[in-house]
Amino acid sequence: MEMIRPSNASDLAEALTAAATSGATIALRGAGSKDAMGGPVPDAQADLRLDRMSGILQYEPHDLTIQVAAGTPWQELNAVVTGQGQMLPLDPPRAATATIGGIVASNCSGPRRRLYGTARDMLIGMTFATLDGSLVQAGGMVVKNVAGLDTQKALTGSFGTLAAMASVNFKLVPLPEASRTFLFAFQAAEECLAARQRVLASALQPAAVDLLNPAAAKLAGCDGFVLAVRAGGSETVLARYARELDGSASLEGEKESTFWRTVQEFAPAWIDQAPEHSLVRVGHMLSELGEVLDSAAGPVVARAGNGVSYLAFDGIDALQNWMIATREKPWSRVVEWSGAAVQRNVELWSGAVDDFALMERLKVLFDPQRILNPGRLYGRL
Amino acid sequence: MLNSSVRDELVRIVGSRFVFDRPEDLRLYEYDGGVDKARPDAVVLPQTTGQVSAIARLASRHGLPLVGRGAGTGLSGGAIPRFGGIMVGFARMNRILEIDFANERAVVEPGVVNLDLTIAVQPGGYFYAPDPSSGRACTIGGNVAENAGGPHTLVYGVTTNHVLGLEVVLADGAVVRTGAFWPDSPGYDLTGLLTGSEGTMALVTKVIVRLMRQPEAVKTVLAIYDSADNCAATVSEITARGITPAALEMLEGKLIQIVEEATHAGYPLDASGVLLIEMEGLSEAVEEQAEKVRAACMACNAREFRVARTEAERALLWKGRKNAFGAIGRVSPFYYTQDGVVPRTKIAQTLREIGAIGKRRELMIGNIFHAGDGNMHPIITFDARKPGDLERAQRAGFEILDYCISVGGSITGEHGIGMEKMELLGHQFSDESLDLMRRIKQMFDPLCRLNPGKVLPTGKGCVEMRQPPLINLSQEM
Question: Is residue B416 part of a domain?
Answer without folding.
Answer: no
